């Protein structure tokens, strides 16, 4: 969050000489502004404007549900909207992830909720209160960025204490709260260490502890793990989820990492062109995508030919059910996950045999499955991914003259013995519903 510049003092205007105590106060104010700007912590002491209600108590019953309605945002000079009729509801205590590629609007949505971006249309509600025109420092939210934004000349404990001081917490309470939050993120033994001496993962834990220390109504996380290496990223994402469940803080998490989103979210909203294409529980989103964009954005997807009628499709000689929203008719495209296919040895030639070009008969003898040649075998630990090419000219014609490639993912112990590049195999769909487009 950028700091606003102080107004220029006219040359003719006399500037009062500051006393030593005044200079200290001025310096302290500047540091407080810097802390607020760097941490993205929005006032924890200030209470958000409250909806009029007789006898309404400010307690646990005042939950932090979020509603963003019909939000529009266009940046100056941009030909398109960053947010285009954007809508999002988050239940109190829920962790929702906004997932999408660069430029889809996910960070803009988070910043609009925080009050860091003006919006041209729409309304933002938190716990029944309209925050649309409320300043960022009055929204009782905390934000953690990709950059850690910690003071290097302060210890981990001092960074958290200073954030509490900025928000008006009494000195007697600051150390206790700071120590509690360091323990929460697993860094109680690092309290006296300067942040510049810490690893990236430890620094981000301190930033998270500092955000949680002010007891925010809403926690906002903008790509918080992007700068970390893979192993630390997995560890910290699990820690964030554990802490979120323990504290019950309503959380909005922004990322481009699919695995990250699937691992921690109560629900995921897949964003495309400034709006949410689909929002659902991770398993539902993965197994029952509502659109081609969602199906192809989340995980790997095969595009296979099939005839679709009466809620069912025939793919490589096997019938499967269609997902809601599927198109119907002949020669449709089915979006099928690699794990929704299985692979067996083609008995016509045995596991060690290889196809020559021009093999006839694309479908196996029993009518279920299609003959293919193995192009690559990827060992992924507990899983194996096998890339194959269908050997029939029939499917090549369907694929605009290009070879039809099919990827199959199996448990490592499901892979037939001896399968290698060039092996003859039969690829068969499992009886798992698919989306037709």
UniProtKB/TrEMBL annotation:
This is ABC-type quaternary amine transporter. Keywords: ATP-binding, Nucleotide-binding, Transport. Residues 15-42 have a biased composition (Polar residues). The lineage of its organism: Bacteria, Bacillati, Actinomycetota, Actinomycetes, Bifidobacteriales. The keyword Zinc does not apply. GO terms for molecular function: ABC-type quaternary ammonium compound transporting activity; ATP binding; ATP hydrolysis activity. It comes from Bifidobacterium tibiigranuli. PANTHER family: SPERMIDINE/PUTRESCINE IMPORT ATP-BINDING PROTEIN POTA (PTHR42781), SPERMIDINE_PUTRESCINE IMPORT ATP-BINDING PROTEIN POTA (PTHR42781:SF4). The keyword ATP-binding applies. Residues 43-55 have a biased composition (Low complexity). It comes from the Bacteria. Its EC number is 7.6.2.9. Residues 1-60 are annotated as: Disordered. Residues 66-298 form the ABC transporter domain. InterPro entries: AAA+_ATPase, ABC_SmlMolc_Importer, ABC_transporter-like_ATP-bd, ABC_transporter-like_CS, P-loop_NTPase. Gene3D superfamilies: 2.40.50.100, P-loop containing nucleotide triphosphate hydrolases (3.40.50.300). Pfam families: ABC_tran.
